[in-house]
Amino acid sequence: MSDLSYLEQIFLWSVVGVAATALVYAFWIWRQTIAQDKGSEKAQAVWNAIKKGAQGYLKKQLKTILLFLVPLTVVLFLSVYIVPPSSEAIARFGSNATLIVAIGRTIAFIVGATFSTLVGQLGMRVAIEGNVRVTAKAVAGDHNGALTVAYRAGTFTGMLTDGLGLLGGTVIFMVFGKAAPDALLGFGFGGTLVALFMRIGGGIYTKAADVGADLVGKVEKGLPEDDPRNAGVIADLVGDNVGDCAGMAADIFESYEVTIVSALILGLVLFHLTGNTFWIVYPLVVRAIGVLSSILGTLAVPIWENFPLKLVRAKDAEEAMFRSYELSSITTIVLAFAFAFYYAGEWKLALLNTIGILLAVVFNPLTSYFTSYKKRPVKEIVEATKSGPATTILSGLAVGMESSVASVIVVALALASSYLVYLGMPPIYMLYGVAMIGIGMLSLTGNNVAMDTFGPIADNANGIGEMSGVDKKAWKIMAELDSVGNTTKAITKQLAIASAVIAATALFFSFVTDVGIVQARLGLAVLKDIRVSTIDTVIGFLVGGSLPFLFSSISIKAVAKGAAKVVEEVRRQFKVPGVMEGTVTPEYEKVVSITTAAAQKDLISLVAIAVTLPLIVGLIFKVEALGAFLAGVILTGQLMAVFMAVAGGAMDNAKKYIEDGHLGGKGSDAHNASIEGDTVGDPLKDTAGPALNPMIKVVTLVSLIAAPVIVAYEASIGAKIAIAVLLVIFVWAIKQSKAVEVAS
After folding, report:
1. Alpha carbons 661 and 334: distance in angstroms, whole number
2. Count of beta carbons in the 10 Å neighbourhood of residue 724
3. 588 near 213, Cβ under 8 Å?
């Protein structure tokens, strides 16, 4: 803070104030949500079962997370003693630098993990408070009221993400100043690690329940989606919350904080190079601008459907949300340019922020093209259902592959913009420009998370309505909101993937920069770029490229094993006298217990693989090979994540199109083929694909933290011992993932 002017210090305190405002706004939304009527006793009975199942799952998952976080907290504390802190830390804290940085990094790790946990846990709880109240509004015939409750319950999670992410990064910088990167890495790693747990666990849970319930209920028995006679229905509804609320919220939160971390790390390099402090202060203020714009936009959503001017009035819930997103985007862009000219005296930073915002906007029509039943790709899948499930699945996979290419081109063009803006200047400016794109892309996180969480809230409300027997008028309102929710979830999944790639790319650049600084300090040859023309780097690149495939394989097999258990249990319960007739209530809690156990079984294995493999590659093949490893992970991770997310979403919407009455509607051969296609696509779009987002960032942050250690001790006895230990853990994780039985 001593290097900042009085005005800049005011800017930073204002950023803290904006973060606090976001948290107050979130509190107000919570109060508004729980003040609404919960509806009939029958609806509340279903809601209580969902609430109980979700809370039980989160308690069990939290215990699993703590088992992993405690030893890592110790490791992070000791890491500073293995490699001395940076020269900036020594200048800031003097002879106590090592101890202060060790404590700071450890506390930052705990805070990052805690914030990520709070976003997932509290966000999911408020979403569950919202779903039954949406049903009540629909029963009362209040379409705008149902939209308002669903969207605002989702906005709570978005503003919690904004407030905590901005508060954590800013306060750490204010405390540590130039030494902030030493602590920020701990903050980013804590949030990312918890997000990985919540994303994987939630994804396995939701799809094990969904696939198992659909295979028996829909395919074998011909029952509707949320028929109360199906013992897997409650677990399915619980899964929407732990997967799409808790999992996605933690996922986007860690992207939000990781882009702040990378921007500050690269900004500090430019500060040393130029002496200008705006490289550090600017991204924090722009994030604060984005938070204020998100508050404005999210407040406006209920207004658009009844707007006085017909020209701007929204015709449905989807258009109302998109209209508010556009309002927030325009506000952020205008204020970012105004601040850039006023404070930094230039336009390039604001232009790159704008490109990031536009990148997020572009994914709306891009995702819609590949997943909407109104467009060619989904129509081709629908046509393929006429000839059976095999052609349906093949057509869906082809759509996913095509979309991967389109998404990579869009991301590449965004990255190229940084190259063009800073053409002729040192490479560090271009790298910082990529971080600015990430800052812009996630500046409207409040809107993005609100739209994503809206999806499972509307889905749950629809399920509660069907299980409690609402009338056709109410069902029509909930069905429309559910359909809109499917679209918004698909868009935010694409956005989460793209933001993960941008964040990981910025961290990758930070990796190269950081390694060079450590090597210069130790008097070694400085790494300026990553070659892929030596045997060790090629090995690193190949192994890194294979990791997303290994990760996806284990995730999908975990769903298959869990779903098989659900199928057995649902079939057993259908044989109980009275269940099929609707006179006996199924034992929903048994399926909830099965899916909870299935989600936990492979959780530790997957996290262990993500943490150990980069360390093994770095210690055996050295730090440049580790850089190539990261390049391979980012490349195939992006391609695989988009492929699976879009393939699953397209097959899901093809099924919904047929269910609307086309090709014979429900119960037809085409419908049965589409159900099987959707069953294959579900774990792709909701488990394996989304899990790659936090995995990419965990791998990158582990590498960034470990790189100085590898540089300093790559030939030591300690390094050889570490390799042996890491290999044992890695082999154990692989072996554990291949166990046939699901723990109960």
Report:
1. 46
2. 8
3. no
Which residues are CB-neighbours of 224 under 8 A, at least 6 positions away? 218, 466
In this structure, the number of other CB atoms found within 10 A of the CB of residue 345 comes to 9
Q: How far is CA 700 from the centre of its chain?
A: 16
Higher pLDDT, 91 or 387: 387
Mind listing the pLDDT tens digit for each residue in 543-572? Answer: 999 999 999 999 888 888 888 888 888 888
Q: In sequence order, which residues have a C-beta less than 8 Å from that of residue 6 and are 6 or more positions away?
A: none
Structure tokens of 53? 């199942």
**Alpha carbons 306 and 298: distance in angstroms, whole number:** 15
Cα separation, 172 vs 183, whole angstroms:
7
Give CA–CA dist 512/628, Å, rounded.
11
Alpha carbons 431 and 426: distance in angstroms, whole number: 9
Helix (H) or strand (E) holding 462: helix 445-468
d(CA 334, CA 46): 46
Distances from the Cα of 457 to the Cαs of 33, 146, 155, 478, 596, in angstroms?
12, 10, 11, 10, 20
Cα–Cα distance for residue pair 632/504, rounded to 1 Å:
12
CA 693 – CA 696 distance, rounded (Å): 6
Asked whether the CA dihedral 404, 678, 462, 244 is positive or negative, the reply is negative
Distance CA 317, CA 306 (A): 11
DSSP state of 231: T
- Residue 417: DSSP 8-state: H
CA–CA separation, 428 vs 42, rounded Å?
Answer: 61
DSSP track, 304-326: GGG-SSGGG--SSHHHHHHHHHH
Query: DSSP character for 526?
Result: P
Instruction: Tell me the two tokens of residue 482.
Output: 């559910």
Is residue 670 helix, strand or coil? helix
668 contacts: CB under 8 Å, gap ≥ 6: 658
* Backbone φ and ψ of 672, nearest 5°: -60, -40
Which residue in 332, 340, 230 sits closest to 288, CA to CA? Answer: 332
8-state DSSP, 340: I
How distant, in Å, are the alpha carbons of 19, 89, 135, 165, 178 from that of 1?
19, 13, 51, 20, 8
Radius of gyration of the CA atoms of the chain, in A: 25
State the alpha helices, DSSP H only, in 340-375: 348-371
CA atoms within 13 A on the CB side of 468: 26
DSSP class of 686: I
Please give the DSSP secondary-structure letter assigned to residue 744.
-
User: Average pLDDT, stretch 220-225?
Assistant: 78
Place of tokens 């850089």: 627
Say if CB 490 and CB 649 are below 8 A apart.
Answer: yes
Q: How confident is the model at residue 740 (pLDDT cuts 50, 70, 90)?
A: low
Pinpoint the alpha helices (H) of 140-247. 143-176, 180-214, 233-240
Give the pLDDT confidence of 274-308 residue by residue, as tens digits. 888 889 899 999 999 999 999 999 999 888 877 87
pLDDT-derived band at 1 (thresholds 50, 70, 90) equals low
Tokens for 205? 């849970």
Contact 432, 263 (CB under 8 A): yes
| Ranges 239-243, 404-408, 454-458, 668-672: which has the least confidence | 239-243
Q: Are 203 and 687 in contact (CB under 8 A)?
A: yes
Query: Helix (H, G, I), strand (E, B), or coil: what is residue 698?
Result: helix
So what's the pLDDT on residue 742? Answer: 43
CB atoms within 10 A of CB 376: 10
Element (H, E) at 256: helix 248-274
Nearest by Cα to 647 from 671, 675, 680: 680
Half-sphere exposure of 175 (CA within 13 A, CB side): 18
Tokens encoding 227? 């028929």
The number of angstroms, rounded, from the C-alpha of 203 to the middle of its chain's C-alpha atoms is: 11
First to last CA, the chain: 53
